[in-house]
Design goal:
By secondary structure, this protein is mainly alpha-helical. Helix content is 57%, strand content 0%. It has one domain.
Length: 98
């Protein structure tokens, strides 16, 4: 079974990172496969096992409506996995206010 093989070969830290990457809109499944060797169906199996049922359903709906999760559906100009504005956004003092 896919999930048993995945579960036995990945650490908790790796599973957490896979979940994080799967939730990110700009990270395609191909990036997860390149880094962890998991196909799209294996990522879906991990997500189904690790998330609450409602969270999994929301994630699946999000993935199906997101053109950036599959490299083949992406616009030709996108060739990286991270927004070029990420550093300025992360360092924004206004966003850290309460």
């Amino acid at each position: 079974m896919i999930l048993n093989r995945t579960r036995n070969s990945l650490s908790e830290i790796q599973i957490d990172r896979i979940i994080e990457m799967a939730w990110e809109d700009r990270t395609p499944f191909e990036a997860i496969q390149f880094q962890f060797g998991l196909s799209e169906s294996e990522v879906k199996a991990v997500m189904k096992k690790e998330l609450k049922f409602r969270s999994y359903i929301l994630w699946r709906e999000r993935v199906e409506n997101c053109n950036t999760k599959h490299a083949g559906k992406r616009v030709d100009g996108i060739d990286r996995f991270k927004c070029n504005l990420q550093r300025p956004i992360s360092g924004n003092k206004i966003s850290k206010r309460r």
